[in-house]
Amino acid sequence: MTTEIRKIRPATPEDYEEILKLNEESVHFLSPLSKEKLIHLHQESEILKVVETDGKVEAFVLALREGKDYDSVNYAWFSKNYEKFLYIDRVVVSVKQQGSGLGKMLYEDVFKHAKSIDVPVVTAEIDIEPPNPVSLKFHEKFGFKEVGKQAVAGGKKIVSLQAVQIAE
């Protein structure tokens, strides 16, 4: 039996094609992402990391601090309600790797980073209409709690705005 080699590393422009493919594969739970928007978000981001499994990009995370140039209504909500935060815009794991622990690896890395830069709150949103029970359960394990709700995508979706306090 072979052991997979997994590693988290900062994303580079060479990863954009794979990041965009992963985003498109799960776009029904996310917002669409063009290469231009990805380049802009990479410049604005606090974290854009990928997970490689045996050298292939299989997952990524994108997170932003407060005060960045980002037109997301969910990011705007957190900006209005929190002075200092780390917003997880998206965590995407390839369909064939879901449930294999890559999302957990990325979240643990995000929490470690938030603690290292003294950010007191990590935020995210989860679709509740249409429901995304896998994501809700995943976030519960990390201690996320609902702090608000809002309609997005022209009222086609309702999201649960969630936050977790980072322990001292």
List keywords for this structure.
alpha+beta; 168 residues; globular; 33% strand; Aminopeptidase
Description:
It is a single chain. With 168 residues, this protein is of the alpha+beta class. It has one domain (6-165): Aminopeptidase (3-Layer(aba) Sandwich), CATH 3.40.630.30. It has helices at residues 16-25, 35-44, 73-81, 102-116, 133-141; strands at 6-10, 47-53, 56-65, 86-93, 121-129, 145-152, 157-165. A 7-stranded mixed beta sheet has the order 1-2-3-4-5-7-6, with helices on both faces. Strand 2 (47-53) and strand 3 (56-65) form a beta hairpin. The chain is globular and about 40 Å long.
Work out the helicity level: 25-40%
Strand order of the largest sheet: 1-2-3-4-5-7-6
Number of helices: 5
Order of helices and strands: EHHEEHEHEHEE
Instruction: Assign the CATH superfamily.
Output: Gcn5-related N-acetyltransferase (GNAT)
By CATH, the architecture is named 3-Layer(aba) Sandwich
Overall 3D geometry? globular
The computed structural class is alpha+beta
> In terms of per-residue confidence, which ranges show pLDDT below 50 for 5 or more consecutive residues?
none
User: How many runs of DSSP E, i.e. beta strands?
Assistant: 7
Characterize the biggest β-sheet: 7 strands, mixed
Note the beta-strand portion: 25-35%
Query: What number is the mean pLDDT?
Result: 91
> What fold name goes in the CATH topology slot?
Aminopeptidase
Rg on CA atoms, Å: 15 Å
- What is the end-to-end distance? 41 Å
Indicate how many domains the architecture comprises: 1
| CATH C-level category | Alpha Beta
